[in-house]
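# step 3/5: fold
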Amino acid sequence: MDELRRAITELVRPYVRAADARALDDPDAELVALGVDSLAVVELIVLIERRFSVTFPSDLLDWSTFRTVTSIAETVVSLGGSAGSGPGDLDRPHSATGSA
């Protein structure tokens, strides 16, 4: 699970305000408090689905799923994904800037 949390953290990192980047070291940090907004979550859904070969069903597309890196990792595991699944390097959407 630690490897999966690290992989998800790296996907989330570009969407976190630069001033809050160190707070992302805590996998239980509230992502919305770090500047992750609804547009970022939509982009993260696409990245995570591709990276971990999972599909988020509509009942999981809410803030509780994307509240923290840990909540995302737990959901990915429940959907059958792991840190070793899916393509390793994916292009990030163009709007990912690292400072929201």
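# step 4/5: annotate
The helical segments are 2-12, 38-52, 69-78.
# step 5/5: archive (pending)
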